[in-house]
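Review this fold:
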Amino acid sequence: MPVSQDRRVLRNRAALMAAAVRLVSERGTTALPVAELSEAADVSRQLVYLQFGDRDALLVAAAADLVERELLPEVRDAAVPHETRMLAMARHFARHRPFYRALLTGSCAFPMTRAMNRLFGTLITTESLREAFEAFDEAAAADMKAFITGGTGALVNDWIVDADDPLDPEELAARLLRLTTMLSPSRRSPR
C-alpha cells in the first residue's frame, strides 16, 4: 500500500474514532446509525465496515484509542507515584464519563470491558506481582492480572455508571489505593 494511502487510512480511522467519541458523548447512547457516524467523520459508510466490521467494534476501538492516547502515557511510568497514577485514571474517566457510561450500558458493554481489562493488564508486570506477592509461576501471574484488572474494572465501571454527579476522582482514587494496600503486603505500612 502506498504511503499516501496509509496516511489516508490512518486519517479516516482517526476521524471515525473522534466522531464516535464526540457523538456518543453528546447523545449519551451507543445507538447511533453507522450512517450518522460516517457522515460526522466525512467518510463513506462502507469504510466503517471495512475498517472496523461494525458499529460496536468502532466504538470499542474509539475507547481503546482514547485510553491509549490520553491515559496510558500518564500511568505507564512506574517512577510516577502509584497515588498519582490512580488519580490520573480517575480524572480521565470522570472527564469522559458520558462516553464511557454510554459504552458500559450499551450494546458493546462486554467487548468494551474486555478491551479495557486487556489494556490495563499491560500495566501489570510479572515482576511487580512477584514483588507484591510470594513467587509464583506465569499462569498464576496471568490469573492475578485478570483478577486485579477485572476487579478494578468493576469498581470503575460502577463508579462511571452509578455514582452521583459530579464524579469525585479523588474519592475513587482513594478507594482504589485502599484496596491496593489491602492486597499488597509490600504496600502496607508497618503496624
The CA atoms of residues 122 and 145 lie 9 Å apart. The two ends are 62 Å apart (CA to CA). The chain has a mean pLDDT of 90.
